[in-house]
Amino acid sequence: MPVTGALAQQPAAVGITRQDVERGVTVDSRQRRDYDPLGVRLGGFVLNGAVDIGPGFDSNLQGTKNNRKSDGFVDEAVTLKLDSDWTTHALGAFANMDARQYFSNSGFDWTDWELGGYGRYDFNAFSSLEGRYRHIRDHLDVFSPDVQTAGVTRPVPYSSDEFQLNGNTRFNRVGLFGNGYYRTFRYDDFTVNGIRNTVSQNDFDTVAGVIGTNYAFDEGRFATLQFRVQDVSYTQTISHPRDSFTWAVLTGFRYDFDGVWQANVNIGYQERTFKGPGIKPLSGPAVDAQVTWAPTLLTTVRFNVARTIEESIRQNAVSYTRTYGGISVDHEFRRNLIFGGQFRIDYREYPSPNETALDGVFIASARYLLNRSMSLLGTYSYIQRFQATGGFEEFDRNLIQLRLRIAL
After folding, report:
1. Side-chain-facing half-sphere of 345: CA atoms under 13 Å
2. What phi and psi, each to the nearest 5 degrees, are found at residue 241?
3. Alpha-carbon separation of residue 361 from 197, 326, 358 (angstroms)
4. Nearby residues of 66 by Cβ (< 8 Å), 6 or more positions away
5. Under 8 Å CB-to-CB from 40, ≥6 apart: which residues?
6. How far apart are CA 111 and CA 325, in angstroms?
7. In the prediction, which pLDDT does 150 show?
8. Is the pTM of this model over 0.70?
9. What per-residue string of b and e applies to 57-77 under the rule 16 or more CB within 10 Å gives b?
10. Cβ proximity of 184 and 199 under 8 Å
11. What per-residue confidence (pLDDT) applies to 1?
12. Which residues of the chain have pLDDT under 70?
């Protein structure tokens, strides 16, 4: 019988080390010393990498109720990560690629990738400053409500550059933290059936920042307060009325109750105002919460919910309020066989025109670790749009994937 409660914090089983049962260790984050890839040591750095490849099937490429298209595909992915192995400070670089090619519908193919690096300077055990940069090539899925109501019938590719600066320090029980980033979004225009989709008029730059403080009641138990701001500036003159400024204030706590339950909850208020005089401001509650429950050493359950204001590529809707959340479960059936399941909802509210969309997603997965270098990953996803108004379509979609992973 699995060990639960306070006894779960003691290494009571053969092969389980003290690190396996430390507070905060989950099924996903737990080290598996017989199966974890070793990487390649390069002086004071460690290089980790993996290649994934495998087939899949998509029952509804466009996310439509009628005239559905289905097709098989092949996925490929490559990850590389170089990290320093120093006792203080850190330096690293990374590169990732993820691509899909459909057998009969090449217009839905996509290739995403990113390159970046980071550096961290540790002033002392409680204070550090970190800088990050990454260049991203990504896409918006064709079944996204934003893409569908914009009249686009293909994935929307875009490029992005992101610069980020993070800092934190602590004075006795009081901690201070800050985060700032600058990011660009550049969409690709494309032609479908002789019609030119000029999605590049949605290109924008954004600057955002967070400053906050926390007070430590005890180890792993904090009260938090933070203030967030974001400025969005569109690059083309025709879209300047869409420029906006957003602010949010959130308060909450980060709390380890007993090693079995842990929570990070922030609740507050947010508001976005626009440069265009005829565009109605968006405001309301802001939420960012995660709760983790570890009923046994072999099972981790997570709950999460968030409410944000986000950009839209639709011409008749500048931004929308998004509320999303769900539950996920990871279970270590054997040391090298991990099952996962999750259910989440995604609710989008567009104020003008007044339209909504409610999507539900169910995902079941299995990961079989063959040895340190090879593993098999299987995933089944089911997506359904439960509610749709305006230009949205209700639909359902099945997605099956199988991948072989080879790691360094």
Report:
1. 9
2. -60, -15
3. 29, 9, 10
4. none
5. 46, 47, 48, 408
6. 27
7. 65
8. yes
9. ebebbbbbeeeeeebebebeb
10. no
11. 39
12. 1-21, 149-151, 192-195, 390-392
Q: Can you say whether the dihedral through the CA atoms of 299, 305, 308, 313 is positive or negative?
A: positive
What span, in angstroms and rounded, lies between the C-alpha atoms of 99 and 79?
A: 12
Coil, helix or strand at residue 85: coil
**Residue at token pair 């919910």:** 305
Beta-sheet pairing, 299-311 with 282-296? antiparallel
Strand partners, 169: 176
Mind giving me the DSSP string for 293-311? EEEETTEEEEEEEEEEEEE
Report residue 194 as tokens.
């002789």
Give Cα separations from 406 to 1, 112, 176, 279, 298 (angstroms): 34, 20, 41, 51, 25
Q: pLDDT value at position 4? A: 44
Amino acid found at 359: D
**CA–CA gap between residue 304 and residue 287 (Å, rounded):** 10
Q: Comparing C-alpha atoms, which of 143, 168, 53, 74 is closest to residue 405?
A: 53
Question: What DSSP assignment string belongs to 176-239?
Answer: EEEEEEEEEEEEPPEEETTEEE-GGGG-EEEEEEEEEEEEEEETTEEEEEEEEEEEEEESSGGG
53 Cβ contact partners less than 8 Å away, ≥ 6 residues apart? 74, 75, 76, 77, 403, 404
What pLDDT, on the 0 to 100 scale, is given for residue 357? Answer: 86
* Cα dihedral value 41, 43, 45, 49, nearest 10: -30
pLDDT attached to residue 28: 85
**8 Å CB contact between 68 and 60:** yes
In this structure, the strands spanning 261-274 and 282-296 are: antiparallel
Task: Taking the CA atoms of 122, 128, 129 and 131 in sequence, report the sign of the dihedral they define.
Answer: positive
In one-letter notation, the amino acid at residue 360 is: G
Q: How far apart are CA 366 and CA 241, in angstroms?
A: 47
Phi, psi of 239 (to 5 degrees): -105, 5
